[in-house]
Amino acid sequence: MVARYPELRHFIAGQWQGGAGDRHWPVRNPATGERLADLPLAGEAEVAAALAAAQRGFALWSGLTALERFAVLRRASDRMRARASEIGEIMTLEQGKPLAEAVREVTLSADVIDFLAEEGKRAYGRVVPSRSGDILSQVVMKVPVGPVAALTPWNFPANLPSRKIGGALAAGCSCILKPAENTPGTAVMLVECFAEAGLPEGVLNLVLGEPGPIARQLVTAPATRKVSFTGSLVVGREIGALAAAGMKRFTPELGGHAPVLVLEDADIAAVVARSVTAKYRNAGQICTSPTRFFVARPAYARFVEAFAAAASALTLGNGLERGTEMGPLAHERRLAAMERLVAQTQAAGGRLATGGRRLDGAGYFFQPTVMRDVPAEAPLMREEPFGPIAAIMPFDSLGLAVAMANSLAYGLAAYVFTADLERAHGVSAALEAGMVGVNHYGISQPETPFGGVKESGYGSESGMEGLLGYMDTKLISLGRPVGRSAPL
Questions:
Q1: How many helices (H) does the chain have, and how many strands (E)?
Q2: What is the phi-psi region of residue 160: left when phi exceeds 0, alpha when psi lies from -120 to 50, beta otherwise?
Q3: What residues are labeled active site?
Q4: What is the pLDDT of residues 129-150, one digit of tens each?
Q5: Which residues contact 199 (CB under 8 A, 6 or more apart)?
Q6: CA-to-CA distance for 290 and 171, rounded, in angstroms?
Q7: Residues 245, 275: one domain?
Q8: Whole-angstrom Cα distance, residue 14 to residue 202?
Q9: For the chain, how many structural domains are there in total?
Q10: Is 261 helix (H, G, I), strand (E, B) or coil?
């Protein structure tokens, strides 16, 4: 039995409330096109109320001990695990990914919150020795930055909010979450878990609705002291400029176009199996998705043939149906984008190895697609597809392959497969990316920092770095009382 889609409401100052007036947008199931619910659009009044609540919540939450905050966050993560199947079904309904992927995302999100809550108890400072007898102590502390605006996209409706909420709350900050307008149900259920855990009112707030106006009001508000954004480069630049005008902390994660270098000594069958799974997970709608495959020429023909065969064998369908290996794209606009990239790649001289078309019938389904012999000038080699398209090219020179991998403005994730330990170290050091996976794709873990370089953004989420991104450094230098001399 499919879980009942939740009532979509804002959560402000510990209270659930509907939107003002009759302004709503439809939320649709991307596998069927059916209407799931109407999304209430927050107006200026709701956002202002959330900002005021976050200020009050910060004053309360930051005054608790790290151990007290830890206890609440652990209760919230336990609630997430207890409701993982229910939340996962809602995620599949509104986002499309297979149910097993959705449920795993919820449990991994709970792990992220657990790790950050634990690290909140270990946000240590230090004592700096004084060079003057008049200074009794110099203590460096980590303190919460203040209320946080968390802006998240639709591809990971549980994981991305959890990284931001977990980091902010573990650090002692309050948070206002603005989730994607087409995946709000998952966010509502996550916030329910925190409310059920006894989180004080105003510490976590949820506003739903039109992204542009809400983001501008949240980012420019004096109450907001930190902005965390995951999304496109274009929007990230705009939000970054708004944050900079107010000298606010800003952590952007702005996408990628991950290269994969497959050296001739790699186990081709094993690499293909891992690569197909990684490439078509969530229909390729992942910022770290492997997309540009550079394969050593002696292994190229075998790699392409095996990759195309494995991709074409994947089962597409509704994520709630047993056996589905790849679900739909998130919305209809992505179908047109995939068709355009395939056509442009073929026009530039690339060859279609498999896939390349949308499926007939309901839903936003596009075949797992493999393009081979893709020239460097093809748009697919420069533009993040954010969909189920892989581009495969041969290389004769490892140095040239590394240069091609580094040739884009993106620098989020990169991968290399080789049995040669020395070359593994050399290539991973040369790749310009915030995260490099050697012989595997599992680079995103609760304990490790997630973030990019170049135009993929800066700063990190998850890991200890994800906690420190929500904290300021504060020095307290304690001098001897004026007029007093040192005791004997």
A1: 14, 19
A2: alpha
A3: 253, 287
A4: 999 989 999 999 999 999 999 9
A5: 72, 76, 169
A6: 33
A7: no
A8: 6
A9: 2
A10: strand
